[in-house]
Amino acid sequence: MRLLLLFGLCLEAGFPAYAQIENPGAAPFALARARRKQARIPIQLHRNLLIVKCRVNGAGPFNFLLDTGVNISIITSTALADSLNLRHGQQYRVVGAGGVATGLLAYQTDSVRMEMPGIVAPHMTCLVLSEDVLDLSGYIGVPIYGILGSELFRSLVVTLRLEQATMVVSNPVTYRRPKGRRWSEVALSLENNKAYFVAPVQLTDSLTLPLKLVLDTGASHALSIELDSDPRLVAPAKRLPTNLGRGLSGMVQGYLGRVGTLQLGRYTLRSVLTSFPNAADVHRRVDVPRNGNIGYELLKRFSLVIDYPHQRLLLRPNTKFRDPFEHDMCGIDLLATGPDYRRYLVLNVMPNSPAAAAGLQPNDELISINLLPISAFTLTQLDRMLHSEDGRTLLMILRGTDGSLRTTSVRLKRQI
C-alpha cells in the first residue's frame, strides 16, 4: 500500500484552513510537572507512520497519528467523540481534493484535555469528523482514533528517537541543542502552524532547484513534488503510473519516479523515490505556496529534533540512513479488517504488476503467505515483505468473493 495522507482540507464556513480556528500563538501542551525539563513518551512506527497513545478527557489511552502536516488536531472516531459527550461547536463542510465537496461534515469542539506521559494540554480545540472516511485503522493495521497535529510541536521541542521507540519532549526555555559533529541544522519557517523548509533537489542531470517543502510526519512516502507549483519543475523520464494513496475525495492518482539527490542540511540522499500526484487530485487551495512535502519514509533515516519554538530541524543519520528507497514490488493495496486487524483484503491491483500477472483480484482475502497463516503477520510486516527483494517469490492462498480458495505465486519485481 502506498499511503499518502492528504489533509489539505478546506472548511466551508468562512475558514479557508485550520489555522484560523485556533490562536496560532497558543502553546496548548506543557510538561505536567513545572520543574521538569523533559518527558519521555513511547512511540510506535506502523507503515512509516508515528503512533502515540493519548488519554482524552480522562479516558483511554487511545492511538493517535502524530502529524506535523495538520495544524489542528482531529478526532476521526465518532464513537470516541460520542462517548466523551464533546461539545458541538461550529459545523463545517469539508472540501477535498480539487475543491470537490465530499459530503463530509466536521464540527469544532473545545476544552478537550489531552494527556501523554509527562505532558498535558488541558484545553485543546479539536475538529471532529462526522464519519471516519479515511479509515486510518484499516490502512495502518491498528486502531486509530485521531490525528495529533501542530499543537504538540509548537508547544515543546520534540526529539524523535526511532531506534529507541521514544519521543523526548523538552521545555523550549531550558532546551539545549545536542552536541556532536554529526548533527546538522535546517532552518524552518512556520506559516499557519506548519513547518516549511527549502531543500535543493536534483530533478535531472542538469537541473537542480531549491524546493519549498512541508515537513510532514503524517505522510508515509519519502518525497512528493507538485509539478504545477512551478513551471520549471519537470517530470522524470522514467516513471510508473500508480495509485499514490487515498484522500478525502478518493484515490489519488499520479506516478512514481526518482530524483537524483535531495540535500537535507549537509546530508545528501540519493535516488529518492518521489511521488508526483496529478494536479486534479491534489488540493491546490492552499494558503501557503509550496512545491511539495517530505514524509517519514525519508525522515526515519535520521534522529530528529523538531524544534518549532526555535524554528529549526536538527538531524543526525541513524542506521537506516543508507537503506535504499524501495517501492511496493507486488502491486496490491491491502486493507486490514476484523476485531484485531489481522484479516487482509485486496483493495486494488495495479495493472501490469506482478500481482495482476498472478491473477489477484480486488476483494480477494489473503489467507496464507509462504505456508504461514496470514494472522501471523501485522500489516506493517506484510508491507515490508512486499517491498523486500527483487525476484523473491511469495506463495499465496486467497479466498475469492465466492468463497473458493486458490493458490498462486507472485514473483516480486522492482518496477521503478
Characteristics:
6-stranded antiparallel beta sheet; 6-stranded mixed barrel; 416 residues; single chain; disordered N terminus; mainly beta; signal; globular
If you had to describe this structure to a student in words, what would you say it looks like?
- The protein is built from six helices and 30 strands.
- The protein starts with 9 loop residues before the first strand and ends in a 5-residue tail after the last strand.
- It has helices spanning 78-83, 136-140, 150-155, 296-299, 354-357, 379-386; strands spanning 10-12, 30-31, 38-42, 44-46, 49-56, 59-66, 74-75, 91-95, 101-116, 119-129, 146-148, 157-161, 166-170, 184-187, 189-191, 194-204, 207-215, 223-225, 240-247, 250-264, 267-277, 292-294, 302-307, 312-317, 332-337, 343-349, 365-369, 372-373, 393-399, 405-411.
- The protein is mainly beta.
- The strands form four sheets. The protein has a six-stranded mixed beta barrel. A six-stranded antiparallel sheet has the order 3-13-12-23-24-14. A six-stranded mixed beta barrel has the order 16-17-22-18-21-20.
